[in-house]
Amino acid sequence: MSVIIGAETTAKVQTQPRGKVIAYWVTTSMLAFVEGSGGIGELTHQWGTLETVEIVGYPVYFLTILGIWKVLGTIAILVPGFPRLKEWAYAGIFFGMTGAAVSHAFVGDYGAYAYHLFSTFGFAILTLASWVLRPKSRML
After folding, report:
1. Domain residues for 116?
2. pLDDT at residue 4 in the model
3. Is residue 28 one of the residues assigned to a domain?
4. Number of separate domains in the chain
5. Whether the predicted pLDDT of 12 surpasses 60
C-alpha cells in the first residue's frame, strides 16, 4: 500500500514576451482612440465629418451608422472576453478603413498630399498590427 504524503500541482502558464504585450497595448490603445473619437465625431457631426462625407458622396445619415459601429467596435476590442466579437470588430474596422480609402481614391480626393488615403490605409495597418499582436486569451 502506498501513501501519498503531499502532492503539488503546477499549472503551466503560457506567458508572452513583454515586448509583444506592450506592442499590443500600444497599437490597441491608438486604434481605440482613433476609432472611438472618430465615432463620437461622426455621431455629433463634428467639424470635418460633414465635409468628408460630402466629398465621397455619401448621405449625411451614413455618419450616424458609422459612428455607432465605430463606438461599438472600440468597446468590443477593449473589453476582456468575447473573442468572436473581437474578430468581427477587427474585421469591421479593417473593412471600414480600407473602404474609406478606396472611396476617397475613386472620387479623386487627393488633396493635401492624399491625406485621406494615407491616414485610412495607415489605420487599416494599425488594425492589422493590433489583431496580430493580441494575446492568446483574446483569440478564438
Report:
1. 18-135
2. 62
3. yes
4. 1
5. no
